[in-house]
Amino acid sequence: MATAPRRPLHKLGSTSLLLAASPALAHTDHAATGLVAGLLHPVTGWDHLLAMFAVGLWAAQPHQRSGAIWWLPASFMLALLAGAAWGWNGVTLPWGAAWVEPGIAASVLALGLLIALARCLPLTANLLLTAAFGAVHGYAHGLEWPQATSPAHYAMGFLLATAGLHVSGVALGYATRRHAWASRLTGGLIAASGVGLISPL
């Protein structure tokens, strides 16, 4: 895999639903730095926010395999961190950086459809799919990593924000277990948002 000029690795030591949203909103520059910048990044862009919320909601669906409620968010967050490291280090993706935004939009659409249609996939397939989505979102985080921030603090911030969004999705999943239509409706709204995100691309 080809790589762009790498930044020093030591810097890595120390990341109501809307029917249509613009991807441009997701990746704004934040005046804050470090932990606060990391916390803000996932929640100030609808594409990141919806996908991370959807992972929690999907993991909490009653038809999911045992352990999915823990493993799916964990696989997303681990892949998110790995993807962020790739972006930060300037690793060039085989399919090119131009596919990052469409990939993020597609993750919102796919997760919404899985929830809306109550699709039951094998746990391994769930994990791989969720990890792939996490890696794409993480790569976008890494590319936009503010240069003035502490990488460790920024990563801690976006991981905490992501975990919070996962927990919110799980909470809604549990709250709607006796009202499957509400969960499926939410999934439909997320999927519609994914269509709105893809349309301008």
TrEMBL record:
Any transmembrane segments, and where? 67-88, 94-116, 123-140, 152-175
Question: Known InterPro entries for this protein?
Answer: HupE_UreJ
Keyword Ubl conjugation assigned: no
Q: Which residues form a coiled coil?
A: none
Q: Name one Pfam family in it.
A: HupE_UreJ
Give the signal sequence positions. 1-26
User: Does the keyword Acetylation belong to this entry?
Assistant: no
Keywords from UniProt, A to Z, are: Membrane, Signal, Transmembrane, Transmembrane helix
Q: Please give the name of this protein.
A: HupE/UreJ family protein
